[in-house]
Amino acid sequence: MFNFEEELKKLPNSPGVYLMHDAGDTIIYVGKAVNLHNRVRSYFRKIVGRGPQIDKMVAQIARFEYIVTDSELEALVLENNLIKEYSPKYNTMLKDDKTYPYIKVTMGEEYPRVLFSREMKKDRSKYFGPYTSAASVKDTIDLMNKLYQLKTCNRKLPRDIGLERPCLNYHIKQCQAPCQGYISKEEYRTHIDQALDFLNGNYKPLLKDLEEKMTNASENLDFEEAIHYRDLYNSVKSVAQKQKITDSAGEDKDILALAKDEADAVVQVFFVRDGKLIGREHFYMTHVEGYGTAQILLDFVKQFYAGTPYIPKELMLQEEIADVEILEKWLSSRKGSRVYIRVPKKGAKEKLVELAAQNAHLILSQDKERIKREEGRTIGAVKEIAALLDLEHVSRMEAFDISNISGFANVGSMVVFERGKAKRSDYRKFRIQSVSGPDDYACMKEVLTRRFIHGMEEKEELNRKEINHEFGSFTKFPDLLLMDGGRGQVNIALQVLEELHLDIPVCGMVKDDNHRTRGLYYHNVEIPIDTHSEGFKLITRIQDEAHRFAIEYHRSLRSKAQVKSVLDEIPGVGPARRKALMRHFGSIKEVKEATVEQLCQVPEIPEHIGRQIYDFFRVEPEE
After folding, report:
1. Are 227 and 288 in contact (CB under 8 A)?
2. Mean pLDDT computed over 338-366
3. Strands 421-422 and 408-418
4. Is 70 exceeded by the pLDDT of residue 420?
């Protein structure tokens, strides 16, 4: 038994990280402290006004542990790592785990390339970004390769010069073939310098050059070339217009502001690189109940900049946050040069922060509307169905369907919806084993029996091992069983449940003559349902999904059966020889018409097998 009084006395007056555990030994909170003794003890004092969320967390603490560090900076880094590792319930968490695209110029190579990259390494390459749109980065790289005819292949130059023929890019005038020595290293470097100039935002000389080339081509009546230069000109202009100047100083900075409600927060980040706004992105923070803007911003800065490969020179925030000095020190050590955290109070910079805050509020309100609509389609629809059937609680629904063609390859499907959403990881397929003909009732009985017996056996195994939680698609039983049909299918399900001594509500999804859902069959009564309601739409989605899943499985079995070849019926011809024959002759018709000598030209076919193949296609079947 954990003795709080004794353990609190042992806490050192040192910086470090503390971890709070609940009764199940799950880590529910990770925090850092300048002084572990003072910080951890503060949780167990009777303090008024610290917030219901912290009180709720403290009530669940069954024990705590701590890790001593040499400095507060080390504690900050360790706290970040542990939060990322354990995702504690009561820590404010950054939901998004994004990796941003960069443009990488491989300056360490003799003939540099311009590449797309998701990470920023400490190598001799130059990186531009991060950008928020991967598509825009790829478009920009394609444009640069067209403009400057740069190498895109992996050939090692100058080692491989002349070893292979030039690729297609050379023939379509998108590369000057340094692999053949058609362009000197010095001349190629001038192209790279121009590309770097372009990436740094200096578009004017290029636009002027393209405009002159377009005009000259047009005057010489070379309209195809003029169109080519016109398209390049428009592409460069489009890229240039996306780069909005925000700061004449030309510095790199991130502008951060947030909006929050009771349960969620959205942090908006504007990315400014070389004085240009290159993009923006928003991030969701969860577990924010009881936390103010400053605390959420602090947690965001720690979590986000622990994972992003690029750190700008300056972070501009909407509010003052704690631990600024230690954060600046940590960010500076990660960047390799000084990083500043500032809160602008006036002028253009303050307006940018206000703009970021407005965007965050807009995203949060729009998202709440979307969530509200989504909940209507899902949780709201489930509540409608539960009310219609007079059931107290419905969360997990399972639906079953049978698919066959005249009794061939009978299969069953099980689809699962939880809280109105498809849970595809719990879907299951059944190959019918005991029924050979087209008997849907018998097939359904087998599927349901196998499903629930399997679940009961797994539960027994868990009980035997004293594991007190459910996992997998079979151990978790549904709150409502949905059958694709009316009275007949429902009675089969009720029979199976009665035999297994299970008490689960069963409802039939009744269709009309046009195979459209018209109502629900429950307790021997067909219940009409409003066809415009969200509940009806959810029932239709579940029914369609069960049908689709069964048909897809049946189709896959049919295709596998059709792969069987007539050659498989010949003694001595297995998959390897069948493939060899088809590779050599190209079709069954050619194999049929081949002589023994022709068949034996296939290396895998010895003479006696060749004779068997030849005879197989020429012996008349017995009457």
Report:
1. no
2. 85
3. antiparallel
4. yes
